[in-house]
Amino acid sequence: IELSILRLDLPRMLCTAPHSAACRRVGAATARLTELRAHESEQRRLIAEGEAVLAKVVQEIELVEAELEAAVTAPVAADEDPTLWLPDELLLQILLIAVTHVDGCRAVCRRWERLCQDRAVENAAWFARWRQYATGARRPRMVAELEDAGSIVHGALCIDEIAIYCATGEGCVEVLSPTDGSAIATLTGHGGCVLALALGPDNVLYTASEDSTVRVWSRDNIFDFDDQDPGYVRTANQILHGHVYPVFSLAVGEENLFSGDGDGTICVWECSTGNLVHQLIDEGGCVYSLALNSRNQLYSGSESGTIRLWSLTDYTVLRILRAAPPAPESWDAAAMLVDTSDTLFSGFWDGRIRVWSGVDGAPIRTIDAQAELCSMVFAPNGAVIFGTSDAASNAALGVWQDGQTILMTLPEDPPVWNVTVAVAHDGRLCASTRHQLWCFEL
């Protein structure tokens, strides 16, 4: 019994013994164990509380999800805005992906009306319509088929609010209704193929031909049917003589008409009288394209691949732009455009559109059309629309805007070639192939 009592008191005796190492170890372990057990108890309590909170949150999420689904599918009152819960960013995505005409969206709600006034949204919707043409979701409307009138001359097409004007290989210009393609008039008199058309101020149409003449047609006379002769045939009001070689290009300013021929001669005519004011000589050869900027200057694009900038004050060459060193005819400057900031777009037969600064002539960018360029026009929103002359290409028609390019074919069999494009002030686009005219509703 005494030995048992001694054993039970041994830990106490050890702990009370002065300077005992075992005592210090036992005391430290006992204190630490007590602390850990208290911490364990606290964590278990917190876990239990967290699980309760989590279960409550999950339940509330399920209730809110059900409410959201009910709210989305609920009928909307006539005076309510169904898009109030959508952020602007998401609403813009809906517009850009699903909408191709913003005009019809303006009445949905005030927010849509505000967003539809954004130029970027409107341009994106316009570009989306072209994607539909490219994928076949939309199809252009064939306005006319001119099998009997001969093939349509590439580059010789223009359109205004009331008619389409296209030159044929027979030396005539057919004037057609843009609605149904019915014949309005036939303009005759040229002794050769009509190579270029241009609409000028004061209701005037200019035509240039391989017979080396430029003819002036009053549109009032074209559409005057009070004394129409059989076949709706019209003759020119004036014939301008000054070229020796075929005339390939025309450009019209406020006061002057400019015409370029196969020998590099550029004639400057006074629109009001038809008088020859001056002649320029482009040493690059045949002048395939002409364009005016807002600084009283003229660009001429030649078969050598060079573009000359002329002053119309003293008729001197201010600058020469070179697409490449002297090369084969694939460098011909087939078409040119100048935008409102005087930036020059020049299309070449090598299948590239080169963009130049209107300030110093520095190259800005190159747009790959993937086929020989035949024609170019500006859409009302500033996009570039171009036609090609390569039957084997899948890029008969193309649209470029803000760094994006859409290429497409036309629904014609056999494959098309020499696609010429023209656009009216109201935004209607017309494209011609050898025998057909197509209208794109933009």
Question: Which structural class fits the helix and strand makeup?
Answer: alpha+beta
The helicity comes to 10-25%
Strand order of the largest sheet: 2-3-4-5-9
Cα end-to-end separation: 113 Å
Mean pLDDT: 81
* β-strand number: 29
Largest β-sheet summary: 5 strands, mixed
**How many individual helices?**
7
Shape: elongated
Strand content: 35-45%
Identify low-pLDDT runs: none
Rg, nearest Å? 39 Å
SSE blueprint and pairings:
Blueprint: H1 2-8, H2 10-16, H3 21-73, H4 88-98, H5 110-116, H6 119-135, E1 141-145, E2 152-159, E3 164-168, E4 173-176, E5 183-187, E6 194-200, E7 204-209, E8 213-218, H7 219-222, E9 233-234, E10 238-241, E11 247-252, E12 256-261, E13 265-270, E14 276-281, E15 287-292, E16 297-302, E17 306-311, E18 317-322, E19 333-338, E20 344-348, E21 352-356, E22 363-368, E23 373-378, E24 384-388, E25 397-401, E26 404-408, E27 420-423, E28 429-432, E29 436-440
Parallel strand pairs: 5-9
Antiparallel strand pairs: 1-29, 2-3, 3-4, 4-5, 6-7, 7-8, 8-10, 11-12, 12-13, 13-14, 15-16, 16-17, 17-18, 19-20, 20-21, 21-22, 23-24, 24-25, 25-26, 27-28, 28-29
Helix pairs in contact: 2-3, 4-6
List keywords for this structure.
442 residues, alpha+beta, four-stranded antiparallel sheet
Protein described:
- By secondary structure, this protein is of the alpha+beta class.
- Helices cover 24% and strands 35% of the residues.
- It has seven helices and 29 strands.
- It has a five-stranded mixed beta sheet with strand order 2-3-4-5-9, with no helix packed on it. A four-stranded antiparallel beta sheet has the order 1-29-28-27, with no helix packed on it. Strands 6-7-8-10 form a four-stranded antiparallel beta sheet.
- Helix 2 packs across helix 3.
- The N and C termini lie far apart (113 Å).
